[in-house]
Amino acid sequence: MAIDPATSSSPEPQAHVSRRTLLKGSAGMALGAMALSSARTGAVERTAFGASGGPPPKGKVIDCHAHLMHHSRANWEAMDRKLIEAADKLGIDQLCCSTLTPKRPATAEGFRECNRWLAEAVGRFPGRVLGYCYVNPGCGQEALDEVRRYVEERGFIGVKLYNEHTCTEPVVFPVVELAIELGVPILHHAGHSHYFNEEQPHISDSGHLAELARRYPEAMLISAHIGGGGDWEWAVKAARNAPNLMLDTSGSVTDAGMVEMAAAVVGADRVVFGCDMSMTAGMGKIRGANLSPQDKEKILSGNITRLLGRRKS
Amino acid sequence: MMIDVNAYLGHFAFRRLRHNTADSLLALMDAKRIDKAVVSSAAAITYRNSQAGNEEVAEEVSGHCDRLIPFAVLNPFYTGWRDDLKICREEFGMTGLRLYPKWHNYSLSDPCCAELIDAATERGMAISIPLRVEDNRQRSWLLNIPDVPHAEIVKLVQAHPQARFLLVNGAGYMSSALGKKDNGLPANYTIEISRLTALLANELGQLINNLGADRVVFGTGMPFTYPDPALVKLEVLDAPEPDKEKIRSQNAAAWLRL
Fold first, then answer.
1. What is the pLDDT of residue A43?
2. Alpha helices in A125-172 (DSSP H)
3. Is the ipTM of this complex over 0.90?
């Protein structure tokens, strides 16, 4: 990966900044103010886009779908560090993370705890971890207050919604409207199978998200993990006619042709790179996709950077 | 040298595959610097008469035997498998056997299956068992095929100590005896890496620690899957270079008797 001289020589983020400056700067960090160690960027050149993977990308690499561990796991701290180490090895510069409750539906107390821990992690890994505010829309005003607080005051870059409600349910709409007001994206858990998903009866799919996107054309929606285990061909096709809906490439499924089909059907401008903790699968898919270097750069960072740049606070 | 023990030729019933002819697969292998690949019929997974798929593969690999190593897909409950096995080994030069017990609807513990495994072993063939074909969450509305449970593999390797098993498209070995150190099982199976993690949980590293680097082999699952995730795993794997070289090719060469 080529190093941007402007970032490779940057100091670590300054310690003496006001909270508001820092919060505004968090969007700036997402756009490229992060310091990169020479060791890490060297790893990129040697690994993820190695000799058999074509030329390494010129820009940054941003994983739009990652998670930090819930603190009920005894080894959460070590697991979080391992994620950063994995990103180092794969040449991933930034990870857009959420922390989820172990069980759903999440209570307001549950998601507040997750977001508080995530905010601490953003501080522990400055410039590496960007936060999505996870809420259960069913919690109403408490969910809205949480999103506003974490986006405006703690510099979170977007909203993470899971499977408590199908995204076309009216209870979700106020969260979408608030995300529009704040100018931040929503990363929405999604999957489509040809059988009833008993474990996730309210799971959304990219068809639901396309419907939501058409209802709110100003919203920036990301349909999570086309490689997450459902019918990815269906997921890609259902997203076609919703220009403000992006597809994230994450998930453990590495079926050949997946990324190319996404780029062909919705356009490379609407595909964003993610791993969702399947790290080598996530990076390997992009490396293996038969796309131009320009399209890969859009997917690896350009598209998510464009979304994060529309922030209003 | 890089040897992929898990590749396919032909069509799959439920999804279009690219790079599924000998020429196009070889072009992909060239691009990824993979020297040799074990190939078997993707169509035979759903053909009733799997020998038709073997015939297609034999035709495709003709002239490419220096790089493509054909394996036979056979169903021990389909009539004529003894004749088919003989043809696959003696006429088609197939050096291994692939079994799909869940897709072909039989049990690995059935006497008929044992007979096929023993017959293939007597002919010097390795026995390759894919623990899955594709993620079950994306399955067609027509079927619901479970993964092969590790417990069934454990019994299988115990029942056939002379056989050489290649376990492919599997994961989660650490939670069964198959991935545990000093597990009391015969060392007659080797594990392919395409679905193993090499970071975070790092199942690949754990398997090397528990079973030894001699028991792990490189494989991609192409053209069902991109070959690159498996390549990336080897690149980021925290292991000595001699161990990586074993995984890239040496173990497969020994297991396949190349």
1. 52
2. 141-152
3. yes
Q: For B50-101, what is each residue's pLDDT tens digit?
A: 999 999 999 999 999 999 999 999 999 999 999 999 999 999 999 999 999 9
Q: Sort A39 into a burial class: Cβ within 10 Å, 0-12 / 13-18 / 19+.
A: exposed
Closest chain A C-alpha to B138 CA, distance in angstroms: 4
Q: Answer whether 0.95 is exceeded by the pTM.
A: no
Query: How far B183 CA lies from chain A's nearest CA (Å)?
Result: 27
Q: Which of B141, B198, B221 sits opposite A280 (nearest CB)?
A: B198
Residue B39, helix vs strand vs coil = strand
Which two structure tokens, joined as six digits, stand for A282?
């996530």
Residue bearing tokens 């269906």: A234
Pick out chain A residues at pLDDT < 50: 1-42, 44-47, 51
C-alpha A68 chain-centroid distance: 12
pLDDT at residue number B81: 98
**For the segment B137-167, what is each residue's pLDDT rounded down to a tens digit?**
999 999 999 999 999 999 999 999 999 999 9
Q: Rounded to whole angstroms, how far apart are CA atoms B60 and A311?
A: 55
Mutation target to probe the B interface, by most B beta carbons within 10 A, among A254, A279, A291 is A254
CA A208 – CA B53 distance, rounded (Å): 40
Closest CB from A83, A86, A256 relative to B18? A256
Q: Tell me the C-alpha distance between A125 and B254, whole Å.
A: 45
Chain A / chain B CB contacts < 8 angstroms: 107
Question: Minimal CA–CA distance to B225: which of B168, B152, B185, B184?
Answer: B168
Closest CA to B237 of B214, B212, B204, B200: B204
**Structure-token pair, residue A274:** 């993610």
Angle between helices A141-152 and A173-182 (to 10 degrees): 20
Residue of B nearest to A255 (CA): B225
What are the pLDDT digits (tens) for B103-147? 999 999 999 999 999 999 999 999 999 999 999 999 999 999 999
Cα of B140 to nearest chain A Cα, Å: 7
Q: Quote the longest CA-to-CA distance of chain A.
A: 54
